[in-house]
Amino acid sequence: MLTKRIVPCLDIKDGRTVKGVNFVDLRDAGDPVVLAKQYAELGADELVFLDIAATLENRKTMHDMVLKVAEQVNIPFTVGGGISSVEDVDDLLHCGADKVSINSSAVKRPELINELSKKFGSQCVVVAIDAKQIEGEWFVHLAGGTIPTDIKLFDWAKEIEDRGAGEILFTSMNHDGTKGGFANEALATLSELVNIPIIASGGAGTIQHFADTFKLGKADAALAASVFHFEEISIIELKEELRKQNIEVRL
Questions:
Q1: Which residues are catalytic?
Q2: The CATH number of the domain where 216 resides is what?
């Protein structure tokens, strides 16, 4: 049985970690470098660092911040935000990132997935999908969830896999920040549709929500932010409870 991963997410804006609800009403959650170090020490399996304003502000990810975080952690570290070329990825990997997450740029130019996979290997390429369920159908959104598209979630996920991505990071905009649980039905469909790992994001509020997304949503990893940032859930306690429910995790 493959080990399930617990992944804290650092959403960065103006050099600070922030967290909102349904992608809006952001509030400060602390220094990303300090938080990254804490999570590595507290048993996180991986970290995701998302410069959430980079695409909206039409700029590249903050390399100095990536360097500082990379110096503090000894676990896999994924960076996203404002990445649109092979050169961008090369720069971030040299700054210490292990993987990169692309989102809007992949939708606008899907060939980017092929290019990055060919150059750096599929294991380095995470494609993030921000999707919203509208009248029963899931649609992809861009630029931090601010731009709707007519692209359907499941069609896009299959294309992502076919183009060589190594993982999909799926965030339900309907569930994000609500602490009401993950979008397990959509996650289960994704898991059946593709053969690459799915990272669940959006909706974590309790330890049982994590257990449910692994059991019901068939997710390979679960990403969360505020429940970790504001110390509502301890990673160690979370993993111990998952073990009790026969979910394999690294302790």
A1: 11, 130
A2: 3.20.20.70
